[in-house]
Amino acid sequence: MAPTEFPLEQRKIPLLAAQNVHRILGSGESANPVLRGVSVQIARHEYVSIVGASGSGKSTLLYLLGGLDRPSQVDAERKAFDPPSRVFINGQDTQSLDDTALASVRNEQIGFVFQFHYLLKEFSAQENVCLPMLKLGKLSRSAAMERSAELLKQLGLGDKIRRPANRLSGGEQQRVALARALANEPAVLLADEPTGNLDRKNTELVAQIFVDLASKGQSIVMVTHDGALARRARRMVTMEDGLIVSDQTPS
Amino acid sequence: MRWFITIRYLLSHKRQSLVCIAGVTISVTMFIAMSAMMAGFTDKFIIETVESSGHITIKDEPRETRTPILERAYPNPNAMLALANVKPRDTIRKIDNPTGLVHALETMPGIVAAAPEVFGDVIATFGTKTLNLNIYGVEPEKQISVTTIADDLLEGDFQRLRTTADGVIIGKGVADVLGARMDDSITLASATGGKTSARVVGIFRTGVTPVDYSRGYMLLSSAQTLLDKKNIINQIVLRTRDYTQAREYAAQIEGVCGYRTESWQESNANFLKIFSIQQVITYIITGALLVVAAFGVLNILIMAVLERVNDIAILRSFGLSRLDIGVIYTLQGLLIGIVGAALGLGFGKLAVEGLRRIPITLEGLIRSEGLLMSEHASQYYLSFFAAIIVVLIASAYPAWRAAKYDPVEVIRGAH
Known about the structure:
heterodimer; B: alpha+beta; 6-stranded mixed barrel; 16 helices; 12 strands; 18% strand
């Protein structure tokens, strides 16, 4: 998929943008500033990895970029940040959206993958993948089930589509989670340590899926501790103590 | 999608779901069975009372006691008034021009029939047994048009009052207490000195115990002689087209004729009050059962929320809003309520039919063969919707709690 397929005005707007983003957990004396003024832009079709030590704020940044969390607007002394702490998804200020509207944005434009798979264990693999499509409501249930089966087949799980989620191996569960994240053809795939809980074989399998997706034009932002996995991305953002300390695009 | 997730969640914890549903079902079943039983006794009492005693009774007295003459002369409430050795005038109480009044009443819209009566207390003696008896002097043809007493006869014929001199028809309870049978002669003595030997020409059973144990019917003229009330009519009994409207008719008639006019509701106000209290108690007991069932639902749904915190986080991550999450848990409560209440309606109906068939003779305020069960559509509607509403209220807290979870905190492992 080439960038030229998008209209010119859309190309000018970054897919994801963080503007002086702060995130303070807790309040008062126990306030913990996890992000301390991060500004970053992610363009369409980029494959970006975010690396950093534990507690550097990389997962928090990912959740904010995906609209799963909202940036703090004032500091510990109740003073507003200047410039305002904002996250934009496709040019849309997440601060201006209520919970339902933000949920719709996540449903339509974002695909999340987490370290601990988080499948709904009472549903089959196919049903897990189907749910975001049912929420979106563009496909009938049978069409959504068909597409789910197709996605699972593409990720090598064609023979396990009807298996309950809790009867799949760790690697298989992560691939189901990946299929679910891709179900609504999201603008961007946000992955938080997607291989952190997998053995070497499955890590390689999942890593290769990400590379394949990126090569097909899928925008991906991945948080990882795995240096080798991070280096497969076209751009690597390094965080330290709530700030971006480097933003490299390897030649 | 909400329904899809809701149904799957309920089916995946079948045992808990069934326990919740069973709780609701039991409370609805109990409500229907108990309220049908209560309504059965109430309805039987009302029908038997209304049918055997008439819908409205006009009595030979004004509703308000007359203002004493001195207070009429000196209306100032602060005036100190005193009278000594007052001797009230000995007036004969009666309804003036009863024939004209009966004719006038019979032409009133809504009034089907009217019957004049003379009423008084006598002492009945048969052998060594004595009993206080309320004697109603009646015209048989008119009486059977205002009450169904003729249909309640176990033995004899109401028209025999006409053909037998000093014939009396007594309640089954009276006959049992006195030990009298058909064609026995019982002695009736009034407080004014009248005495007669009356032949039992009929025995009735209305099913209302106070009536069956205290009432006797005689021919009007015989009763007037016995009670020393020659040519006196002291009450008129009316039958209306719709007995539920008796209160309105009574007020209307009283306004016109000036005599105290009691509807059957007013005459039996004490019993009706007891029935109302019993109904409230029934509602409290069955309501308590429903509340217990609702707590069961609350408990199980809270457990379900706690168990599925990770599910809530992932559902939120792929686009469900807080509202969606809240609705999913509310729908679980709604489904439990609907299924439980619907089953309760079925089991309630079965319970009513089962109880109706228990062979048991009850004798209290009313007498009945078997448990009296009276079904009203309102019992079914009320229990069905009350159960659903209570369960919905119970599911509101778990739903709110589920919606409140912050997915990021869950993913970070805070929960």
